[in-house]
Design goal:
34% helix; three-stranded antiparallel beta sheet; 61 residues; alpha+beta; 3 strands
Length: 61
């Protein structure tokens, strides 16, 4: 979660980031933590062995 949040903070507002997560604990905790922090989750996709999560940096924080 921390690495993803730091990367989002470096990106321009409105930019979309794709994050790859392992199943289990990362997939359970990272999307929830990002949503609580105000980062909208746009897509979660199962890619056979890992999950691709697309999250957008908000226009205004």
């Amino acid at each position: 979660f921390i690495r993803t949040k730091l990367r989002l903070e470096q990106m321009a507002p409105g930019t979309l980031l794709e994050v790859w997560l392992d199943p289990g604990e990362p997939m359970e905790q990272v999307p929830e933590s990002l949503a609580i922090a105000g980062y909208p989750i746009e897509l979660v996709e199962d890619r056979s062995g890992f999950f691709a999560l697309q999250v957008r940096r908000p226009l205004a924080e």
